[in-house]
Fold:
Amino acid sequence: MSEIDAVVFDVGRVIVQWDLRALFGKLIEDEGELDWFLANVVTEEWHFQHDAGRPLAAMLPERKARFPDHAWLIDAYAERFLETIPGPAEGTADIINELDDAGHPLFAITNFGAEFWSMFRPTEPVLGRFRDIVVSGQERLAKPDPAIFRLAERRFGFPADRMLFIDDNAANITAADLDGWHTHLFTDPAGLRADLTDRGLLPT
Structure:
């Protein structure tokens, strides 16, 4: 028998692809300029502010004042965010469907801005398989803050040591480990499927 009663997924780079370059590569032709822009203007670190609950109405004017020559690109970040999600992580949805069909309770904890989440959630039908999803931007708590894992335990109704957490970010996995969760550091669906099979959550 598995020691795990529930499986908890990250979303970005586990269920769906996410890459700022997928959008801005369409808007900036020169590769060197694109690299500079993603390293200095619309960076993953800056984007994380929205994941952590900061509203776009505060972030965008501040950034445009700092980089006025790139104001239209900063607006594109807000208006065309869904283009940073080029498609599913091929194979993960099949695993989610198989786990749900087998009766395993499924949940998610995602670092995702609240405004972007409202745009994205209707576009991804497989999320309907989850019983509950903790969204960092809605809670104003973001991984790897231990508080988001404790919130998830209360929301999901299972203790940490009875849940498996799947994430592509090593810092988030470490935080979950320290809180007593079972964990899987996601690199690809094949590796996840093998681990779930070894744990008795999927058939051999």
Q: What stands out?
A: The longest strand covers residues 106-110. Residues 11 and 110 are 6 Å apart (CA to CA).
